[in-house]
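User: My collaborator sent over this chain with a note saying "see what the structure looks like." That's all I know about it. Can you take a look?
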Amino acid sequence: MFADFTLGTTTNRLPGGFASMTFRVDTRGNVRMAGILPNGKTFSRSAPLQLYALDDGTPAAGVPLFAPFVNGRDLLSALVWFSPVVDFVELSVDTGNGWFVTWEDNAPGGYGTVRLALAGYPWRTPPVLRNLALLADPGDIPWYESRAAVASGFLRWDAIKRGIPLTLNTRGTGFTLPRGTAPVLNAGDYDYSAANSARATFSLSASTGVFSGSFNGYLGVTGARGPVLRTARATCRGVLLCQPDGTLAIGAGAGLVAETEPALKALRLKRSFPVMLSPIP
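Assistant: Without extra context I'll predict from the sequence alone. Here is the result:
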């Protein structure tokens, strides 16, 4: 299950971006929850599924999420609902009544209260895999040279914005990528047209649907001896999504890349952005 975190906050200091969570329910009704927050923090918790009846008598279940972090100054909390929808179960939080996934970060330089919305569908059986494309649009991320007060420019993400083709292997359990090819200098400029100029990597657990990977963004700058290519490595993590009819729709997750702006670098922030897996016809 993928949780799309739409962020709102009571302060102006929030990391912004996207994150993902997974929920796994065993035969005894225990729920294992794991995920990664927009600043790169990971968590893992388990709790029993609680049974409820809604006002109209519809059966439902919920699981409490409470995850304090190591420094003792921030925590994640929520009540996540499991609601039956035909043959599937929809996961959500009751935002209509003001209930969110709440992330409290009260450490010095923290974010205050960040409220997160949550939605997604799990599957009963692993989805049928097909050829996919790994896609992301990190947006305008500035690159700062060491100790520079002004950005040299914005990182380029040409290959990952076009989509890195993922070809299903012969066993139907994993994917292969085009060989990674770094951008080459051509007539004074760098050529990013290779299918995998991002030098992306990708791995998938066929049993859980969780995927992870990494890819590069680049910026060509002028050095003392001519053009120089700067590289920023982004990581990503997410899960495969199923449509309610049981077929694979997309994969969804989040990417993270380190901050180079001097004023923000001291906060150890990472910029986050959505990452998608899109079926290739």
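A starting point for your reply to your collaborator: Confidence is low (pLDDT under 50) at residues 1-15.
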